[in-house]
UniProtKB/TrEMBL annotation:
Full protein name: ATP-binding cassette domain-containing protein
Sequence ranges assigned to domain ABC transporter in this UniProt record: 5-225
Domain of life: Bacteria
The keyword Oxidoreductase belongs to this UniProt entry's keyword annotation: no
Record keywords, A-Z: ATP-binding, Nucleotide-binding, Transport
UniProt KW DNA repair keyword: no
GO molecular function, one term: ATP binding
PANTHER family: ABC TRANSPORTER ATP-BINDING PROTEIN ALBC-RELATED (PTHR42939)
Organism listed in the record: Streptomyces justiciae
InterPro entries assigned to the protein according to its UniProt record, in alphabetical order: AAA+_ATPase, ABC_transporter-like_ATP-bd, ABC_Transporter_VariousFunc, P-loop_NTPase
Length: 289
């Protein structure tokens, strides 16, 4: 399928006789999944993400599938001849929006990440944090089927970091795939579908934090909801929740990472007809509230 992305025996080296940075990589990213990449600095994580984003071509092997892809690097090239709003508007028109719609999308995305005050600031004059907000905004404009985040949280303030986590939850709930690297081991803890370690140029599958160590799962939210008569749990809710129990017909107990709770609640309340949220409680990995 075009929305799947598959690496088949992929290797990458720089120069005809350079050492292999990556070799023998097999990986499939499917819609609606969240994948974390781990590993020490210099092991090839960023190279792997650039191949996934099709910014680099493999030296051997094949990359199959062509999902609509967006990429956020750790350091965004800010020396561009645009203001922040002008840059986002330009990209939105490339994605097919009319000029007026593109301007609204640019303004809304900057507002979402707390960068509206810098809308008319030249990109070259933005701070690292503000530039990173524009980098995140440009990636989300296209509603990508594959979102690749390479230390994308670096430089963001707390509010923007939380907003990016919500954006990740929205992408996966909508059926997109997200793959990310981050220095914080608790980033999106408990929300990942797969965790891989890049070591000595090879890719090793690991168990998810929730499966291997409940204490590593991070805080989560338990939502009890009652559906309309004969109603089924919305598909986006199924994708967002870590577990979905049905103690009685039409009633669900949904567990979701705290970072994804807003998305789950919005999905339930905006369903047609809407679901009734009976209770919401926050829990720590040890079971406290």
């Amino acid at each position: 399928m075009e929305r799947d992305l598959q690496l088949d025996n992929v290797g990458r080296r720089y120069g005809l006789r350079g050492p292999w940075v990556l070799r023998g990589i097999h990986l499939t990213l499917t819609p609606g999944t969240l994948t974390r990449m781990e590993g020490p600095n210099g092991t090839g994580k960023s190279t792997l993400l650039r191949i996934l984003a099709r910014l680099d071509a493999p030296s051997e092997g094949k990359v199959k599938g062509r999902p609509r892809t967006a990429y956020v690097p750790e350091r965004f090239p800010s020396a561009l001849p645009f203001t922040a709003a002008g840059y986002l508007t330009h990209l939105a028109t490339i994605h097919g929006l009319t000029r007026a719609s593109a301007q609204r999308a640019a303004a809304d995305t900057l507002e979402r990440f707390g960068a509206a005050v810098h809308a008319h600031t030249p990109m070259a004059q933005l701070s690292k944090g503000s530039s990173q907000k524009v980098a995140v905004a440009q990636a989300l404009l296209a509603e990508p089927e594959l979102l690749v985040l390479d230390e994308a949280w670096t430089g963001l303030d707390a509010a923007a970091r939380a907003e990016l986590e919500r954006a990740v939850a929205e992408r996966t709930a909508a059926g997109g795939a997200v793959v990310f690297v981050d220095h914080d081991p608790q980033r999106l803890a408990g929300a990942t579908d797969a965790v891989y370690a890049v070591r000595e140029g090879r890719l090793e599958r690991r168990t998810t934090p929730m499966a291997s160590d409940p204490a590593a799962a991070g805080p989560h939210v338990v939502v009890e909801a009652q559906g309309p008569a004969g109603g089924r749990l919305p598909a986006d809710a199924h994708r967002t929740a870590t577990t979905a129990e049905e103690p009685e017909p039409g009633a669900y107990r949904l567990t979701v990472p705290a970072s994804h709770s807003d998305v789950l609640l919005r999905t339930l309340l905006s369903a047609r007809p809407p679901w009734h949220v009976v209770s919401v409680r926050h829990e720590t990995p040890e079971g406290g509230r």
